[in-house]
Design a protein that fits this description.
Keywords: Membrane, Transmembrane, Transmembrane helix
Radius of gyration: 26 Å
Shape: globular
Largest sheet: none
Order of helices and strands: HHHHHHHHHHHHHHHHH
Number of domains: 1
Number of helices: 17
Oligomer: single chain
Transmembrane segments: 71-92, 104-124, 160-178, 190-211, 245-267, 279-296, 357-377
Strand content: under 5%
Distance between the termini: 65 Å
Length: 378
C-alpha cells in the first residue's frame, strides 16, 4: 500500500495513521448526485402514496403545514371510513357497526390507519437527512446513477397501488374469515368492510416501503468504490445515519409484530374456520418475517460493506510471498505497517453492538413462540 501517495507530497512526516486521517479530511463530493437525492426526497411527498394520503388535507388547508394541520390531516385521512360509518351509516341503518364488538373492530382498523399514515409521513422526513450523507458515500462510485434510477423506479405509482390492492384484498378476506367462524363470529356490515379495506390499502403501501427501505443496503452492495472513512469505516456518516434509521424502523416493526399477534388472538375463536386458521398461522408469521428482514438484513449487509472496505485497505499489506523480503524487515516504517494492520483488524463492523441485534432477534422469535404456545394452551 503506497500510503505516501495517498496524501500530499508534503505529508511525508508523521506515522501512517496520521496520513490516513489527512486523507479522510479530503472527501470527494458529487453535487449532481446530492441534488438528485434531495430532489427525490422532495418529490416523494407527492409520489409516495402513503405520504401523499397523509398530507392530502394539510395541502388544501390555507397557510403553511404546521403540527395542528398535519395532525388533522392524518386523523381525517386515516379515520374517514370510520367517521363516514358513524355519520352517514346512521342515516342508512340503525346499527351500522353492529354493536360494541363491530364498533371496536372498526375503531381498531381506523386507529391502525392513522398510526401508519403518521409514521409514514414522519419517516419520509428521514430521506432528506440521508440524502447528503448517501451522496457522499456514492460520490466515487460508477454505479451511482443506477442506484438513483432504482429509487425513482420504486416511486412509480403502479407498484404502490398494486401493493395497496393486495393489502385491501387480504383485509377483506380477514373480515370475511372473522365473520364466518364456527363460534364467536363477529357480525359485520359493509361499513366494517370499508374500514378494514382502507386499513389494508394503507398497510400494503407501508409494507411496500418497508421492503424498499430494507433493500437500500443491498443496492449499495452493488455499487463499487463506496467512499467511506479510512480510519473507521463503520462510523462513516452515511453508515451511522442508516443504522439510526434502521434502528427506528426495527422498533416500529417490533411493535407491529406485537399488535399483529394480539389482534389475531383477539379475533380468533376457539373453533375458527379453515380460512381463519390460515390467517391465524400466516398473519403473525408474515409479521415476524417482515420484522426480521427489515430489522436485521440491513445491518448484516452494511456490516459486509464495511468489511469489504476494510479488506481493500488491508489487502495490500498481505503480500503473498513465501518469505518476507530482507529490506522490508529493515525498513524504518515496518512498525507503522504493523500499527496500521492492527488498527484495521480490530475495527468494529457497525456503530452498534452485535448483542443488540441478537436481543432483537430473540425478542421477535420469542414473541412468536409465546403466541403459539398461548393459543395451544387455551
Amino acid at each position: 500500500m503506497d500510503v505516501q501517495a495517498a496524501g500530499r507530497p508534503d505529508e511525508g512526516q508523521g506515522d501512517i495513521l496520521s496520513r490516513l486521517e489527512a486523507v479522510d479530511r479530503r472527501r470527494l463530493r458529487d453535487a449532481l448526485t446530492e441534488d438528485e437525492l434531495h430532489r427525490f426526497a422532495e418529490q416523494g411527498r407527492s409520489r409516495v402514496v402513503v405520504v401523499l394520503l397523509a398530507r392530502a388535507i394539510a395541502r388544501i388547508l390555507p397557510g403553511p403545514i404546521g403540527p395542528l394541520t398535519a395532525t388533522a390531516s392524518v386523523l381525517v385521512m386515516g379515520a374517514w371510513p370510520y367517521l363516514l360509518a358513524l355519520v352517514a351509516g346512521g342515516f342508512v341503518e340503525d346499527n351500522p357497526l353492529r354493536g360494541t364488538t363491530g364498533g371496536l373492530f372498526a375503531f381498531s382498523a381506523a386507529l391502525s390507519s392513522v398510526l401508519m399514515l403518521a409514521l409514514g409521513w414522519v419517516a419520509w422526513r428521514w430521506t432528506g437527512v440521508l440524502a447528503e450523507n448517501v451522496s457522499d458515500l456514492l460520490a466515487a462510485s460508477g454505479e451511482r446513477r443506477e442506484f438513483i434510477g432504482w429509487l425513482h423506479a420504486r416511486c412509480a405509482r403502479t407498484p404502490q397501488l398494486v401493493a395497496g390492492a393486495a393489502g385491501t384484498g387480504l383485509a377483506v378476506l380477514l373480515v370475511y374469515a372473522v365473520s364466518h367462524q364456527s363460534t364467536d363470529s363477529v357480525s359485520v356490515s359493509v361499513w366494517i368492510y370499508l374500514c378494514c379495506a382502507w386499513t389494508g390499502f394503507v398497510g400494503g403501501g407501508v409494507i411496500y416501503w418497508l421492503y424498499t427501505l430494507a433493500e437500500v443496503p443491498l443496492r449499495l452492495h452493488r455499487c463499487q468504490d463506496l467512499q467511506m472513512a479510512w480510519m473507521d469505516p463503520a462510523h462513516t456518516p452515511a453508515i451511522v445515519q442508516l443504522c439510526r434509521v434502521y434502528g427506528r424502523v426495527a422498533v416500529c416493526t417490533a411493535l407491529g409484530v406485537l399488535i399483529a399477534e394480539l389482534s389475531t388472538l383477539a379475533v380468533t375463536s376457539d373453533h375458527p374456520g379453515s380460512l381463519m386458521r390460515g390467517f391465524f398461522v400466516g398473519f403473525p408469521v408474515l409479521a415476524v418475517i417482515t420484522a426480521m428482514y427489515v430489522g436485521i438484513q440491513p445491518y448484516v449487509t452494511l456490516a459486509y460493506l464495511v468489511r469489504r472496505h476494510i479488506d481493500t485497505i488491508v489487502d495490500p499489506l498481505m503480500a503473498q510471498t513465501h518469505r518476507p523480503p530482507g529490506d522490508l524487515l529493515l525498513s524504518e516504517d515496518l512498525g507503522g505497517v504493523f500499527q496500521v494492520y492492527g488498527h484495521f483488524r480490530t475495527l468494529r463492523r457497525l456503530p452498534i453492538r452485535t448483542a443488540t441485534l441478537l436481543q432483537y432477534v430473540t425478542g421477535i422469535l420469542a414473541s412468536l413462540v409465546v403466541f403459539f404456545v398461548q393459543r395451544w394452551a387455551s
